Amino acid sequence: MIFCEQERYQELKTRLYDIQAALELLETESDEHLEQELQTNYEFLSSELKHVEIISLLNQPFDDKGAFMTVTAGNDNLDSLDWVEMLQRIYANWCKNHDCKLQLLDESIGEFCGFNYVTLEITGNYAYGYLKSEQGIHQLKRISPFSEDSQIQTSFAKVEVTPILDETVNFEIPIQDLEFYVQPSNPNSNRISLLVKATHIPTGISFTSKDKRSQLQNKEQALAVVKSKLFALMQIQGVSLKDVKKASTKNVANNPIRKYIFHPSCQQVRDLRTNIETSKIEEIMKGNLDLFTKAYLKQTH
Q1: pTM for this prediction
Q2: In what order do the strands lie in the sheet with 258-263?
Q3: What is the pLDDT of residues 231-289, one digit of tens each?
Q4: Does 263 lie in the same domain as 160?
Q5: Are residues 78 and 152 in the same domain?
């Protein structure tokens, strides 16, 4: 970690030196190649400074951890299922932009398109700190591609973001509050079923893992996600484990945090908590969310 930061610092110094040298040379003569190199280095440093500014705001517990993210459709219509898939692509692109690793842990594929839900594991420096601002209801308005009469359709998706807890967090769930379901193997198949579902009985928080190489690994993965979601619920309610209550099930259409309007006459993404907005929807689809992240962190800092 320290070595990586030292490498990063040295690269920034080198880029800054290259900019200074290019400016001095361009004062005496014009050089198109040098101008392009100057522009590239300037854009890189500008991006890095924005990153450093956000990092300076990430000083809360678990901000430097990875994150579990679950995106769930607000209802079962085609537009909502497609909206979940669109959000999943946004976050996949965000991971590429921030050198984070993304792994699909669980999914429920829609019958005709999209997903009922997806659960992602995102690992990398400050992944949770960056992505915690995405927690909440995301609303999309657009001309439905599934409607024959080109109607405007409003879709909703719920995004949950919780930190990946490591061994430094002293947090154990009493065994009597846990239930594990192991899917029986098919007697007509030689393959052993590896699916394991973990449930925290008092709150109903559960997760199913099936893609690891053994039942034990799937049990550990399922329990890790349950612990993360349970810990986040405790933080929201401000209570200890023994006093945590089942999360309320409010209508997802209430109180969206962000509205997306994808329409030929109006293209806009607006964060309702900070009033930050942009008309560059292509940039948002590419996972460029830092303008919303920075505004949210400044507001809550």
Answers
A1: 0.82
A2: 101-109, 115-123, 67-73, 152-163, 136-143, 258-263, 266-271, 277-278
A3: 999 988 999 899 999 987 665 567 899 999 998 889 999 999 999 999 999 999 999 99
A4: yes
A5: yes
